[in-house]
Design brief:
- It is a single chain.
- It contains 11 helices and 21 strands.
- The protein is an alpha+beta fold and about 425 residues long.
- The strands form 5 sheets. It has a 5-stranded mixed barrel. A 5-stranded mixed β-sheet has the order 18-17-19-20-21, sandwiched between helices.
- The model has no long low-confidence stretch (mean pLDDT about 95).
Length: about 425
């Protein structure tokens, strides 16, 4: 990708009404554009990051047996009335059709769609368990939509639903998804600061569980057990002032961002929609359910909150918009510099290395360096007039200040070892 062809340029300042670091940096670096509070457009660089997160999640969901579907965001009132949530869910967007008196909701979640979907399949014990997931837009009428991608009114979410004959089978699958979530957050570059967190199970069970990433800008408060690497959220710390796993009472209070959650729904929604299965003896029994969510944009925003410095974003290699940011700088013969940079760009691309090439001819070296830091691609490769004479290039790891000089002929091999 050539930077001269991207119309969404970097900015020196973010909108004044953006208080969240993730929104400030992502807007300034040209990854997203603000439409209104809680609603953003993903620009080319931002969409590349989002798709990489999506691919990491999809791989793990397929790995635990998930079959991908796509459900609608437009929901009829009748389905939400069956669960009682039409009148109780405060964040539900509701409206009436212009050409009828039929009322609708924009889906903030999909229990009201997936449960009757499975109910219509007339399943028996032989069909269970079933695992279905989607990656879909969601809508919530958030009052506090001031946290950038962390709390949106429109957002993209992966939700997985599981259907079982027994609670024991649900418990077993629950642990498989737990392990898959650990792998997802590790792959996204925040595994070392993301904790499996005990939360209130509400009417469903004793506990539900969240995955909380430690961050000073987090809206949640959690209490860490460093012995077990688990946490307890603020809702239940008063009930259980100790680690649920080992009983340790020496817990560390931290601010954190919720990046995922898993719930044992049991029969709450299957009862509402009469979702049953036929047992071996022909008896109808209620299906037991679980649900497992991850917000894709929330993961992206959390990575930025956790991985940035004074210069800008510091993307993990796994989800960065490119592996390498190639810069051509200098006041020498522009044709020679361009020819060398173009050749190197093509060589990197042909070697399977993803490159953002800053080929802009009317931008100073200082601006290019500043933009490279702001955008945060893991490796910066600089072609300059001085190094060109020696047939060398400069490489800098975005996480470090030190630079390395290598011969042009060594560049591809060097980068492949890092990538």
């Amino acid at each position: 990708m050539r930077q001269s062809q991207i119309i969404f340029n970097t900015r020196k300042e973010a909108p004044k009404d953006e208080v969240a670091i993730n929104a400030q940096l992502l807007i300034r670096a040209g990854f997203i554009d603000k439409v209104m509070a809680g609603v953003y457009t993903y620009l080319p660089l931002g969409l590349l990051v989002l798709k990489k997160i999506e691919n990491i999640i999809r791989k793990e969901m397929i790995g635990v047996g998930g079959q991908e579907i796509l459900m609608p965001v437009l929901h009829p009132k009748t389905l939400w009335e069956k669960t009682g949530r039409w009148s109780t869910l405060e964040s539900l967007f509701k409206f009436t059709g212009l050409n009828s008196n039929v009322e609708f909701a924009l889906g903030p979640t999909h229990e009201e769609i997936i449960t009757p979907l499975v109910q219509g399949q007339n399943i028996s014990y032989k069909d269970l368990p079933i695992y279905l997931f989607q990656i879909q837009d969601k809508f919530r009428d958030e009052v506090r939509a001031k946290s950038g991608l962390l709390r949106g009114r429109e957002f993209i979410m992966k939700d997985l639903y599981s259907f079982h004959t027994t609670e024991e089978d649900l418990d077993s699958y629950y642990e498989k998804v737990h392990a898959a979530y650990d792998r997802i957050f590790e792959a996204a570059g925040i595994g070392d600061i993301t904790y499996f967190t005990f939360a209130s199970g509400g009417t469903f069970s004793k506990y539900s569980h969240e995955f909380q990433t430690v961050s000073d800008s987090g809206e949640d408060t959690i209490y860490l057990c460093e012995t077990c690497r688990v946490a307890v959220n603020h809702e239940i710390i008063g009930e259980q002032n100790s680690c649920p796993t080992c009983g340790n009472k020496n817990l560390n209070e931290k601010k954190a961002i919720e990046v995922g959650n898993i719930f044992k729904l049991k029969t709450k929604y299957s009862s509402a929609f009469n979702l049953t299965y036929k047992d071996k003896d022909g008896t109808n029994k209620p299906v037991i359910m679980g649900c497992y969510g991850i917000g894709l944009g929330r993961v992206m925003g959390t990575v930025v909150e956790a991985r940035h410095d004074d210069g800008g974003i510091v993307w993990p290699l796994s989800i960065a918009p490119a592996h390498v940011h190639l810069l051509s700088i200098g006041s020498g013969d522009p044709d020679t510099l361009k020819e060398t940079a173009d050749r190197m760009y093509n060589s990197l691309i042909q070697s399977g290395i993803e490159v953002l090439y800053d080929d802009r001819s009317h931008v100073s070296a200082g601006e290019k360096f500043s933009d490279a830091d702001l955008i945060g691609i893991p490796y910066r490769v600089v072609i300059s007039e001085k190094l060109l004479k020696e047939k060398k290039v400069e490489i800098r790891d975005r996480k470090e200040k030190k630079v390395k000089i290598v011969f042009e002929t060594e560049l591809v091999d060097f980068l492949k070892k890092q990538i």
